[in-house]
């Protein structure tokens, strides 16, 4: 499980982030988000606002993004909420990074289905490339976090890297994905074996005619 502690609130942090404000594009996006909710219910926008803020920090720092305390306070001001209420939301959801991360946030699922299907091999590929759980590599490229189930158990073992899932992994395929990212390439997300989403490997094994067209089997029942 990822460590869920806020990065220390220091004068240096304040100097860097106290002046945080939306970019022009994000100010427009924020206005659209808050308009989805009835008047007086703007606290409902705290999750999308934190996500927007984290992405803006990511764009500013060339990382996946994180939430410095002054940025959380900015979100609280925007939504007219006590900062501690927004901090509660940020610290509950692991999609929000409470400390700086690298350009690629490698979140390896270590819950039982992924563990039984080889998450140790996935971690091994990360360790061989200098990653340590809870740390960012010295070149700032990768942060490694072990997380709980990410909801893709049918394609275990899997990993989430920034906004993409990579599934049906082996140590070899995980290594290739990391090497491609390090080389500035864009590896194909999704299953790393020959299947579409969670369909059988190699193609359908039942109701095969449905794969070609909307075949009506009802007359054969
Ligand atoms: S156990 Fe890994 S995605 Fe569910």
Automatic annotation (TrEMBL):
Keyword Lyase on entry: no
Residues where [2Fe-2S] cluster binds: 109, 114, 149, 153
CDD domains, alphabetized: TRX_Fd_NuoE
Transmembrane segments: none
Reactions catalysed, as given in the entry: a quinone + NADH + 5 H(+)(in) = a quinol + NAD(+) + 4 H(+)(out)
Cofactor note: Binds 1 [2Fe-2S] cluster.
Key word Disulfide bond present: no
Keywords, alphabetical: 2Fe-2S, Iron, Iron-sulfur, Metal-binding, NAD, Translocase
GO biological process: inorganic cation transmembrane transport
Any GO molecular function: monoatomic cation transmembrane transporter activity
Cofactor(s) the protein needs: [2Fe-2S] cluster
InterPro entries: NuoE-like (IPR002023), NuoE_dom (IPR042128), NuoE_N (IPR041921), Thioredoxin-like_sf (IPR036249)
Any coiled-coil regions, as ranges: none
GO cellular component: catalytic complex; membrane protein complex; organelle envelope; organelle membrane
Region of interest called Disordered, as start-end residue ranges on this chain: 183-205
Signal peptide: none
Similarity comment text for this entry: Belongs to the complex I 24 kDa subunit family.
PANTHER family reported for this sequence: NADH DEHYDROGENASE [UBIQUINONE] FLAVOPROTEIN 2, MITOCHONDRIAL, NADH DEHYDROGENASE UBIQUINONE FLAVOPROTEIN 2, MITOCHONDRIAL
Protein name: NADH-quinone oxidoreductase subunit NuoE
Chain's gene name: nuoE
């Amino acid at each position: 499980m990822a460590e869920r502690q806020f990065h220390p609130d220091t004068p240096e942090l304040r100097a860097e982030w106290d002046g945080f404000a939306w970019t022009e594009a994000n100010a427009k996006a924020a206005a659209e988000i808050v308009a989805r909710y009835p008047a007086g219910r703007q606290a409902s926008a705290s999750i999308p606002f934190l996500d927007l803020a984290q992405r803006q920090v990511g764009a500013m720092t060339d990382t996946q993004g994180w939430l410095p305390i002054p940025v959380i306070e900015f979100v609280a001001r925007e939504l007219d909420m006590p900062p501690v209420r927004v901090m509660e939301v940020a610290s509950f959801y692991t999609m929000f990074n409470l400390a700086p991360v690298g350009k690629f946030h490698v979140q390896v699922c270590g819950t039982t289905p992924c563990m039984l299907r080889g998450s140790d091999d996935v971690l091994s590929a990360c360790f061989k490339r200098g990653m340590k759980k809870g740390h960012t590599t010295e070149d700032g490229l990768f942060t490694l976090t072990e997380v709980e189930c990410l909801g893709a158990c049918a394609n275990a073992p899997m990993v989430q890297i920034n906004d993409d899932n990579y599934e049906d992994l082996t140590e070899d395929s995980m290594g290739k994905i990391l090497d491609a990212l390090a080389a500035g390439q864009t590896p194909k997300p999704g299953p790393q074996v020959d299947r579409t989403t969670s369909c059988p490997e190699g193609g359908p094994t039942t109701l095969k005619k449905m794969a070609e067209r909307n075949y009506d089997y009802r007359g054969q029942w």
